[in-house]
Structure formats: structure tokens, C-alpha cells
Write the C-alpha cells for this entry.
Amino acid sequence: MDKVIFTKYSNERAPQFCIRTDILEESGSRWIRKIPVTAEAKTHVADLYNRYEALRQDLEDSPLRVNPCTISGDGVSFPFCNGATLEARLDGLLEKGDTGTLVREIEKFFAMFAKRAEPGCELLFRETADFSEVFGHLDLPETLYCRRVSDIDMVFANVMETENGPELIDYEWTFLFPVPVKFIQYRCLHYYLSGTSRRNSLKELDLFERFGISPKEQEEFGKMESHFQQYILGSCTPLWKLYDSISEGVIELSRMAAPEKEKKANRTVEIYFDKGNGYSAADCEKRSVSHEGPVTVRLTPPEGTRAVRVDPCSGKSVVRVFELSQGAQPLPWTSNGLQAVNGDLIFDTEDPQIYMQIHSAAPVTVRFLAEPVSGLTRELLLNQYGHLHWLAKTPLWNLYTWVKRLKKDRKP
């Protein structure tokens, strides 16, 4: 008998797009099933097979494969695809600092579905009624190259690197009218760069310009994306959009930050090495660092070191730890600060400290951002621990925490 080991509802959408995705298992074999949640969504799910056939035929001459789709009752089924995503591969290269190979991997992927079109080619963009309904109006010349079939969700997280080559695993948003290929590339870059703060360093590479997406095109593609998201939502308002209705506003802590003279106290990072006798000034290094932006400290523990203490700054502050690792492995750590729900550390002390155990002589990397706080900012943080007490008392917040706890308990 089929065993459901994972279920995801995509129901914060217009009724005609509400679906459920299951991962099923029987006798050690797994597969994916998508079924409509509403009567209106039956057509959308049934069309997935037609989109699969059209996309497969359009990519026949490409090394990019499409995860097979079969009709299954009221829904459709797909083989469970084993392997790592292209997104994970790019993140691995980023962690190694190999941005050159990372860019080449993106170029290689883009080349699988993008090619030049000569003037007069039938695949040059033209705005159709179907296009306008989904994406709005595009204020760009009709000289952009398009494919006959456009899967606009070819983001790096939807590309699996399998033993048979790269494979698209989700093509729900595939359209049979002209969509500029540059827009597909824009979405790939946009959602990768904005996915996590760990990728902020890539913004210095200006990947949009590197791949020929001009500022004007970025602006227009951003409008297209907003129109597309509204097309999916219809009249539905997702829970995350209710913030403006229930929030009493946002306090920008940066405007309440301490004056420049207080920031200057953050220019020294102190590193203490415990060789079995505790921390002392005799085994301390001091590093001068910029007080603006994230700070990266790399150190090599002296022989016999058992533990390391890093004092990221002086004075009451908020510290965000981006990385704390030894070699290629993350290091567990503790601190003398309070931890907010988003992971930031709140230090109500003049001597912030972060501690970690060391198990080898491999180099240690610590990357963090420190901001001093005082006055109302400090009181606000200490009273809230990262969230507003008034919000925690509302029925909506109680419902949210109950659903979050229920989802956590049901994880396989």
C-alpha cells in the first residue's frame, strides 16, 4: 500500500491553482504525486502532462532532461529524482571561495536553453494577450529571444544533478506563448542571490550585467515577476501578507544606532586561547578591524589549544554570526549573550564573548556583524528578545505557532 511520507499544500493561491504535492513510498521506491485541492484546479493539474510533453520536445536537442510526467487518476505522477541540486553545487563552490567556477557553472546551465536568434526569427519576443494576462505589459523592444515553450521556474533549486545529467524536477509554470529567455535567467539569478545572506558576497560580481541583463531589463523583469505572483494569488491574500494589517509598524534600529564615537569601540576584536589553564591576557591576540559591515577573522590555534574565546566588540551590542568554522566543518559555540528568535546575539554587557571548543590545529574562521546599541534601542531589544510581546498574545500568532509546531511534529 502506498505510504505518504511528505505532503505540501500549495493553497495560498487563486482557487484554479491550489494543489497538493505528496511524496509516496512503497517497497523502498518513491515517487511524487500532484493532485488538485479544488475543483477549479483540475484543469491546471491535468495540463501538467501537456506541458511536460511540450517542454520535453522543445529541449530534445539540449542536455537538459525533463522529469517524466504520467497521468494518475485525478492527478499526475513523477519519478522521485535522486541527486543534489544545482543550487547546492553553487553553494559548495561559494563556500570554497571559487566564484570563477561558480560563474562558469551558471554559464553552462544557461547555455542549455539559451541561444542567439537572428533578426526576423519566429522566436523573437512578441507580446500576446496570454502574455499580458500573466505578466502584464513589457516596456522593451520586441527583439528578445524566446523559446517556443517557456518553463520560467528553471531556478537552480529545480535542477537536479543526476547520473544521467541535469534534470528539471518542477515545471508547473510552463507556458506555450513567447516569454523572453532573459526573464528566465533573471529569475534564476534573482532567487539565488536573494535566497540567503550567505550569497551577499556575489552581489559584487554584478551577475545580471555579466549575463547581459541591463538595468532597464532588470526593472521590467521585476515588474513582470510582480504581475506573475499576483496572477497566481488572484484574490487570495496569503498569511505572510497580513503583516501590514496586524503590525503596529517597524522601528528601524539603524536610525537609533549609537553615534560614531561609540562605533569606534568595535574596531578591536580580541581572541583568547585556552591551553588548559583558562583564558588569560598572556594568550590573547588583538585584531584591528573595520567597524563598518561584516568582519571576517581567520586564526590558527597555537599548539595545545583546547578552546577559543572571541570577543567580537566592546560594549552593549547586537552581533549576527554568519560563519564559525574550523577547516570545512562548522564549530558549535556558546556565548554570554541572549539569543533572539532569528539567531542574533544580544549582549547587555560591556564584554561580549563567544566560546568554542577546538579539536585540531586547523584554521578557524569567524565572520560576524556587530552593531552597538544603547538607550531606547537597548531597552526595546531586551524587552522583546526578537519579537513583539503584543503580537505573541494575538490569536493569529497563537494559530501560527500551533501550525508551525504541528508541522515540526509531523516531519518524517
Summary: The radius of gyration is 26 Å. The longest strand covers residues 317-326. The mean pLDDT is 85.
